[in-house]
Write a structure and sequence with these properties.
By secondary structure, the chain is α/β, with parallel strands linked by helices. The protein is 36% helix and 16% strand. It contains 15 helices and 17 strands. It has helices spanning 3-12, 23-31, 50-63, 92-109, 149-163, 200-203, 207-214, 231-244, 251-254, 288-306, 313-322, 346-358, 377-384, 423-433, 446-455, and strands at residues 41-45, 68-71, 83-85, 88-89, 168-172, 189-192, 223-226, 247-250, 255-262, 267-273, 279-283, 330-332, 337-340, 365-369, 390-393, 417-419, 439-443. An 8-stranded mixed beta sheet has the order 4-3-2-5-1-6-7-8, sandwiched between helices. Strands 12-13-17-14-15-16 form a 6-stranded mixed beta sheet, covered by helices on one side. α3 (50-63) crosses α10 (288-306) and α4 (92-109) packs across α5.
Amino acid sequence: MIYSQAIAYLYGLQRFGVKLGLESIARLLQAVGDPHRRVPSILIGGTNGKGSTAAFLASILQAAGYRIGLYTSPHLLDFTERIRVDGQGISSIEVARLTDELRSLVTALFPEPQTPHLGPRTSDPAPRTSHLAPCTSHPAPRTSSHPTFFEVTTALAFLHFARTKVDFAVIEVGLGGRFDATNILDPEVAVITNIALEHQEYLGRTLGAIAAEKAGIVREGSHVVTAADSPEALAVIAGACRAQGATLLDLRAACNWQISRSDLSEQRFTLAQTGEPTGEFTIRLLGRHQVTNAATAIAAARLLRARGAHIPEGSIREGLRGARWPGRLQLFPGHPLVILDAAHNPAGAKALRGFLEEQRFAGRLILVFGVLQDKDWIAMLQELGPLARRVILTRPESDRAADPRGLVEAERFCAKLEILEDVPEAITLARAVSERDDAVVVTGSLFIISAALRALGVREATL
């Protein structure tokens, strides 16, 4: 099998849809010797900020001298971005080799694929994994069907990390937490970044219900960090920790941080944490929300240190400063300045708006915007539309993309609205009609960011 064949096989598994549950991933991992049990891990869930927090923490641990595996999803330009060791993506050769190995096992273990389904059903039995936190928002889903794209990819990542002998694996949860394939892990530290309304068809209609699903990554006697700021969500997470006898570090109660510099090049902040030295830190990821993500990574690193890891404060500072996370408030200087941000829900749009207002772009930006069908685009454009003097609606490169002609209700929030379905053409138009001090902001979906990066000549999303 060569790389193109491996990718074709993996993407072919998308026909099995979204399947929440742990039995299939458990069977597959058992067949390859349970590699996930051979590597200490940190599991990072939440709604927004998971990937950034994971990138910060991986960079900190690498600066401390550890060999680090990082698993995130989705990717921007190439599948190999999802699985990294010390910042380097897995090689295409290794993807092909491991996929070939796993395909043989999948064929043997799951010879009769069932009809795929896209969510939990009321008749589904409870999963066999007994240490998961209970959830009242949804019954347990069916777990015996053919492995999905995400399950096989997750198994591939764990196998790669075990065989390359990483010291820690930093793992981003895919969807939810309780029934996500990554929740097969027994992490050293669990992180829940925040809770917002998203994927409600799978996770529940309220913040409390979604928090219950996210809190499914809490283990008995474990250590948990959360940056959740919703009282409803925080109460659910705290309750899950009490039920499991887990120790919870509420970031906003235990830490206080003050930003001393926030511009288009970097951010500096001072963080005071109960029982820890006060320090000054610099990050190159932009937006005040990234300071919260950095503070979350600091707290997680210090918990790992308390559990025996060697992580000096100097390594924390070095790791934070060196962290990169492409596609999130990524700037392309010039006239006009181009800003790419993968905000894909109202909470992300609100964070993006905060950055644009703080940097005084309100009223002098051209917004290129496109979303997937299941997103709350009205709430997103309520945040971003009033800042733009011109909005260009476009179509993400996905079969789940929303038709931009169906977003014309955005006229309520936008001074001038037009439609250009092709993303590169939309960006070209935005740059052509911009004035010297304008910024072109491209957002709404990671698929749009991928297309924008290619249109701007970027061929590799490096950390």
